[in-house]
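Final report, Chapter 2: Outcomes

The project's central promise was a pipeline that accepts a single protein chain and returns its three-dimensional structure in a standardized token representation, suitable for archiving and comparison. That pipeline is now operational. To close this chapter, we reproduce one record exactly as it appears in the project archive, with the input sequence first and the structure output second.
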Amino acid sequence: MYLSLPGNLIDDDLIGILIKGMVLNKTITILDLSHNKISNSGARKIAKFLLSTQILTKLDLSDNHIAYEGSRYLAQALKVNKILKNLSLKLNRLDDKAGSKLCIDLLNNSSNLESLSLSSNSLGHMFCESLAEFLKLNTSIKCLDISCNFIDDSNAATLKDSLEGNPNIIEIDVRNNQLTEETEEEINEIITKNFLASKNIPFKKLGEYAGAPAQEEGGSPGNKSPGKNDDATEAGSPTKTNNNAAE
């Protein structure tokens, strides 16, 4: 069951009332609380709910007021809760330190998240270093959105190495950071390889596909193209037949 309550001015007090009702409801698996006014105190109440129940599979908290403290409450809850698979903290107030600590907590708590959105926060160098460590060891995460932050090329090599070492990552969004176009293309190529491998499809660049027809037109060593010698053979065949007929 899906419960969608975006843009309803839900604050920390109202979220407490909502949580009390949800404790009695065992059917809601997807909860959308985006575009509200939930801060660290409200995040703590949501974390307690996640600790006491194993129902929600998707939680959208994008565009709220959650910062360092609130993100830690949520990460700690995931140490116990292994049912939640999709979490969005997009457009919150997570700075570089908060993002870094969140990744460390998720790693230490053996998170089972498959999709995580941290887009449009204030994440940079510290976060990227911790994210790389998280991706090296976590085997559940598949989709990651870290777009619209302050990640630059100083972390590019570390990030690419962690993505290459984790074939489970099949979707990532790194747009609108401070990465060069070349770095973005390299990251997207790594993820494309991972995705194709998950479908048992071999990865080939466009140039490799373009070379195949050219080889067919030129002919392979074992397949001789029709030429003058072939025409001569065809022309000579009736003569040979006539000779046999004369005999």
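Archive annotation: Residues 214-247 have pLDDT under 50 and may be disordered.
This record, like all others produced under the grant, will remain available to the consortium after the project formally closes.
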